Amino acid sequence: MKTLLIDDEKPSREALGHYLKKYCPEVTVVGEAESVESGLEAIRLHQPELIFLDIEMPFGNGFDLLERLSPDQEPEVVFVTAYEQY
Question: CB–CB of 63/6 below 8 Å?
Fold first, then answer.
């Protein structure tokens, strides 16, 4: 399963990538992004089936990214966040 990691914190992306590699061998991380804009670009480029998406990022949030996807670019989404209110 092609997967993208979209999170503004590199250590979070690295940790998640490590756990996916260790515990989910059927998941292949095809790319990473650190913002809404780079996430949209990575989705267009890699066409993932699944994205792990941070909610709070600089210059926008995960919901902003989802609203900008076209209907043919709607991967499954797992939200990741360090904020308790989510």
Answer: no
Residue 54 near residue 46 (C-beta atoms within 8 A): no
d(CA 69, CA 54): 16
End-to-end CA distance of the chain: 26
Neighbours of 32 (CB within 10 A): 19
When mean pLDDT is compared across 7-11, 69-73, 74-78, the lowest value belongs to 69-73
pLDDT tens for 50-70 read 999 999 998 899 999 999 998
> For the whole model, what pTM was predicted?
0.91
Angle at the Cα of 55 (from 31 to 17), degrees rounded to 5? 35
